[in-house]
């Protein structure tokens, strides 16, 4: 049992992350203190939530490039609502951010589900549209911290058991995902729809609908993260989270989510995101210039996917995969 | 009923068959380009000035140079999203060589060489380790630009040798800039390569069915390797032009270009699923995007609004053929029921 745990992908990954974590701890003991660990987790919360949403999309053989633009739009929207109606209750604002995020995600999902157009093209398009819409909405202006209400900024910072609400939100998301992806039919369908769409179709899974749900969830989480991002950095502007979608995908890839679909776990995905979080936090401490961060994460992605590919698990699958599988489903 | 089943069972060329329903995608693009020209010249008196039009070409020639090999790569069922990062790395290396006092041609040579090396690296990763190209290039995208950041940090390189500015700012004859002439030249080269050589036919074959191509004796991996290197080389060339035009290098150069390059290719009627598309379509899409950007610039519309329009165009382009087919099949079903 222990052996299997260590040799599993998640096991290897967590050993790497922990080695890195304690390695930095040797150089600077403060790094591994509880409060710093919590703050690293808190820093990574948004990435974790977005990566979990993205995981669902990638599991179903799609990709969502519009998450960062969704974050920017929803963040700007709720910030402006807060600016003009400061007395509005926070619960309502959070609901609003979830709703708008879900709406933007549903647009992606509907195109993929009903028109069967490749998700990479659709989300490439909506990515520009949502980002542009953010500009139209705000007219290029910023919403600064003094224009936001106290509770708007304070909520993610409010500490429960010495961890901010932001971190707790990530914990709740992880637990929900863990349960759903392991024990609910709804969650298992993502694996079947991505692993073998044709088999899924013949066993009564509506593949298109499952893809729609994936985009819906990814969008909803992006919406929530839109509020969290804007509130955490206490500023909303058009270029919020620019290019963040690639980090989100990187977290998934490092965590062992296979880009061809059907493979990936919640735990792996979370560790993948934490890996990026630990690297980002550790670099300044061990005295490496932050300019190294990008190259390191690129190198890690490449090494992770090479390790993934040479483990050889996918090979049999690729040979057996019927290239017409998708089209036969379309024909029906 | 038989016909509908046959149609939808065609693998991957489903988009082309639908596009043929729209007459030809290319002729549709010509029509739109013409309409945009008429509209622009009606809206702004400055549009039809040859020098203004010539200036407008600078907006897209560099991206367009990469769109040409990218079209071939996407036709072969692969993709490269590290192109903008390749521009950055090759520009950085050119800058460092220039700082050491290298002559113009050495600087340009380094640019192309760096591009080729990056493309080769992508290609080797994809073919040797059988990793999907989108993942590889997401990784190398961070890696290449990351190396630029390591080498330059927040520095800017400006010391380029005299004469280097010709590549991005020079004119060959009257209003025809070096960039524009180079683009026209490469458009012809890639037209020849894709539509007139066995190399081009193999590209389509691989895109339509890699396994069948492999068993018919096409060296699929070698072909992919060449295509990736080709994209790298052209990114290097684009990097020379851009660096020369801006006269400076910083690691954040050409940020986000990969997406507009892919948009150009898809807008040109190349199926993102591989197997179909033409160079003529890509060239028209490039011109269309250039004209629309330029026209909106003349009307003082901010650039970011342009991205909305490009996004809408992209989605319309891929959804419209599907919608038309859906409408047709539903009509046929109604007829069948009526009978």
Question: How would you characterize this protein structure?
Answer:
The complex is a heterodimer of chains A (332) and B (339). With 332 residues, chain A is mostly helical. Chain A has a single domain (34-320), classed as Orthogonal Bundle (ABC transporter involved in vitamin B12 uptake, BtuC), CATH 1.10.3470. Chain A contains 16 helices and two strands. In chain A, strands 1-2 form a two-stranded antiparallel ribbon. The termini of chain A are far apart. Mean pLDDT of chain A is 88; it is low at 312-321 and 328-332. With 339 residues, chain B is mainly α. Chain B has one domain: ABC transporter involved in vitamin B12 uptake, BtuC. Helix content of chain B is 75%, strand content 1%. Chain B contains 16 helices and two strands. Chain B has helices at residues 2-9, 14-21, 25-43, 50-57, 61-75, 83-99, 104-129, 133-152, 166-169, 178-196, 198-208, 210-215, 220-246, 257-267, 279-298, 303-338; strands at residues 171-173, 176-177. Chain B has a two-stranded antiparallel ribbon with strand order 1-2. Chain B starts with a helix and ends with a helix. Residues 1-12 of chain B have low confidence and may be disordered. Classes of the chains: A mainly alpha (332), B mainly alpha (339). Chains A and B meet through helix 6, helix 12, helix 14 and helix 16 of A and helix 1, helix 8, helix 14 and helix 16 of B. Chain B: The chain crosses the membrane at residues 21-44, 104-126, 133-151, 171-194, 225-242, 254-273, 280-298, 304-327. Chain B: The complex is composed of two ATP-binding proteins (LsrA), two transmembrane proteins (LsrC and LsrD) and a solute-binding protein (LsrB). Chain B: Its main location: membrane. Chain B: InterPro entries: ABC_transp_permease.
């Amino acid at each position: 049992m222990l052996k299997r745990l260590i040799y599993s992908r998640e096991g290897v990954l967590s050993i790497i992350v922990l080695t890195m974590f304690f390695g930095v701890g040797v150089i600077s003991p403060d790094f591994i203190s509880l409060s710093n660990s919590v703050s690293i987790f808190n820093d990574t919360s948004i990435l974790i939530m977005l990566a979990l949403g993205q995981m669902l999309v990638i599991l179903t053989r799609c990709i969502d490039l519009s998450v960062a633009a969704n974050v920017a739009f929803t963040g700007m929207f709720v910030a402006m609502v807060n600016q003009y109606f400061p007395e509005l209750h926070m619960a309502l604002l959070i609901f609003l951010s979830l709703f708008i995020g879900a709406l933007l995600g549903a647009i992606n999902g509907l195109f993929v589900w009903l028109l069967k157009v490749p998700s990479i093209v659709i989300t490439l398009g909506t990515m520009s549209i949502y980002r542009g819409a953010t500009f139209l909405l705000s007219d290029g202006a910023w919403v600064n911290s003094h224009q936001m209400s106290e509770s708007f900024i304070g909520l993610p910072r409010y500490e429960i058991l010495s961890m901010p609400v932001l971190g707790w939100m990530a914990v709740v998301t992880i637990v929900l995902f863990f349960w759903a992806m392991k024990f609910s039919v709804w969650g298992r369908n993502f694996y079947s729809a991505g692993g073998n769409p044709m088999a899924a179709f013949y066993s009564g899974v509506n593949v298109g609908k499952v893809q729609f749900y994936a985009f819906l969830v990814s969008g909803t989480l992006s919406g929530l993260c839109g509020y969290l991002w804007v509130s955490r950095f206490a500023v909303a502007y058009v270029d919020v989270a620019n290019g963040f979608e690639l980090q989100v995908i990187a977290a998934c890839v490092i965590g062992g989510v296979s880009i061809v679909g059907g493979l990936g776990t919640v735990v792996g995905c979370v560790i993948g995101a934490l890996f990026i979080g630990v690297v980002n936090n550790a670099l300044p401490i061990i005295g490496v210039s932050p300019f190294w961060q990008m190259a390191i994460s690129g190198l890690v992605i490449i090494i992770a996917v090479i390790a993934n590919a040479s483990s050889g698990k996918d090979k049999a699958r690729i040979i057996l995969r019927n290239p017409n599988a998708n089209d036969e489903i379309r024909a029906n | 009923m038989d016909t509908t089943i046959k149609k939808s069972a065609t693998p991957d060329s489903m988009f082309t068959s639908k596009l043929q329903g729209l007459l030809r995608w290319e002729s549709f693009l010509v029509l739109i380009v013409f309409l945009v020209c008429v509209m622009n010249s009606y809206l702004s008196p400055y549009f039809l000035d040859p020098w203004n039009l010539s200036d407008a070409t600078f907006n897209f020639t560099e991206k367009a140079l990469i769109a040409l090999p990218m079209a071939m790569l996407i036709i072969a069922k692969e993709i490269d999203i590290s192109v903008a990062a390749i521009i950055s790395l090759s520009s950085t290396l050119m800058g460092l060589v220039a700082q050491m006092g290298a002559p113009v041609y050495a600087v340009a040579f380094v640019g192309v060489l760096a591009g080729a090396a990056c493309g080769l690296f992508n290609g080797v990763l994809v073919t040797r380790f059988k990793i999907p190209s989108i993942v590889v290039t997401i990784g190398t995208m961070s890696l290449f630009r990351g190396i630029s950041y390591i080498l330059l940090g927040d520095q800017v390189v400006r010391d380029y040798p005299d004469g280097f500015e010709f590549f991005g700012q020079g004119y060959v004859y009257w209003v025809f800039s070096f960039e524009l002439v180079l683009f026209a030249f490469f458009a012809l080269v890639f037209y020849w390569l894709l539509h007139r050589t066995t190399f081009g036919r193999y590209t389509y074959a691989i895109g339509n069915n890699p396994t069948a191509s492999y068993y018919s004796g096409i060296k699929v991996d070698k072909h992919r390797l060449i295509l990736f290197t080709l994209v790298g080389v052209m990114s290097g060339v684009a990097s020379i032009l851009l660096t020369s035009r801006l006269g400076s290098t910083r690691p954040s150069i050409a940020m986000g270009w990969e997406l507009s390059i892919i948009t150009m290719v898809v807008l040109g009627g190349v199926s993102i699923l591989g197997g179909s598309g033409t160079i003529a379509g890509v060239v028209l899409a490039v011109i269309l995007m250039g004209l629309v950007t330029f026209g909106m610039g003349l009307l003082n519309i901010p650039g970011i609004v342009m991205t909305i329009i490009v996004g809408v165009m992209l989605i319309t382009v891929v959804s419209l053929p599907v919608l038309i087919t859906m409408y047709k099949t539903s009509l046929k079903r109604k007829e069948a029921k009526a009978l």
